[in-house]
Design brief:
The protein has helices at 2-6, 15-28, 32-45, 50-63, 66-79, 84-109, 113-125, 129-142, 147-159, 163-176, 181-193, 197-210, 215-228, 232-243. The protein is mostly helical. Helix 5 runs antiparallel to helix 6 and helix 8 runs antiparallel to helix 9. The two termini are 47 Å apart.
């Protein structure tokens, strides 16, 4: 990349800033191993380089490594004790870690679907998608009808990149909760990401049928039809006109929120 290619040519005094920018770019791209290596190179050369420790803390958070994140925030705040936002973030992570520990202990002492589902939710908040999926599976093994656990498993699988498994879990959730917004929107997003226009259209139609008064969804469906080309929007309006009650007149608005 441009930043990486510039590293050999920059003055030593400018190298830390360039490494910091490159590390953050890699982190935002989801290349956490590269980001960690760059941030460690930065703090290795200048141990007191506070932003490098902050970068390592964010990488650890992205991985769901609460212990690593807290250790890195400790080092950052040792150099920047006046940073209130970082101090607050460290406290939030401490509380999250403690809550997870309490739930693990409770699940060990008296396993229950609700406890495992809540543990899965907190692990997801912590960025540990694999741990969240495992906790939600354990909840469903106890109670296969637990909707929060089913939703949590679907979201964890999505975050792990297991799109097919996530879609199956979202559909299973909709079988019990047909208007579940998380599942309905997630199926639209999964279809879009795999470039399946037919599946995306079907997902939009299912969403609007289940949540007919959700105007943002209707508008997004219109935008999808416009992008789809081939006169898709015009065909949809014609279909509405054909099915409109007698006397509705100008049927483009009939029965379709957002097509007004």
């Amino acid at each position: 990349t441009l930043l990486q290619g510039a590293l050999p040519n920059v003055a030593p005094s400018a190298r830390p800033d360039l490494l910091l920018n490159l590390g953050e770019t890699r982190r935002r791209q989801g290349r956490t191993a590269d980001a960690e290596r760059i941030f460690r190179e930065l703090v290795g050369a200048r141990p007191g380089e506070a932003p490098g420790h902050a970068g390592l803390a964010r990488v650890a958070e992205d991985r769901g490594d609460l212990a690593g994140a807290l250790a890195a925030w400790d080092l950052y705040l040792k150099a920047r004790p006046e940073d209130e936002a970082a101090s607050l973030r460290r406290e939030e992570l401490r509380e999250l870690k403690a809550s997870i520990a309490v739930l693990r202990a409770a699940a060990s002492a008296a396993p229950g679907a609700g406890i495992f589902a809540e543990l899965g939710r907190l692990l997801a908040v912590a960025g540990d998608a694999a741990g969240s999926a495992e906790a939600c599976r354990r909840a469903l093994a106890i109670d296969g009808t637990h909707l929060d656990a089913r939703r949590g498993l679907a979201m964890a699988l999505r975050d792990l990149g297991e799109a097919r498994g996530a879609a199956a879990q979202f559909r299973s959730l909709l079988a019990s909760a047909p208007a579940d917004a998380v599942a309905l929107y997630a199926l639209v997003d999964l279809a879009r990401k795999r470039g399946d226009g037919r599946a995306e259209e079907a997902a939009w139609r299912a969403l609007i049928a289940a949540r007919p008064n959700e105007l943002p969804a209707a508008r997004a469906f219109i935008a999808f039809l416009e992008r789809n080309g081939d006169g898709a929007l015009a065909k949809e309006i014609d279909s509405l006109e054909e099915t409109a009650p007698d006397g509705a007149g100008g049927g483009s608005a009939a029965g379709a929120p957002g097509l007004r």
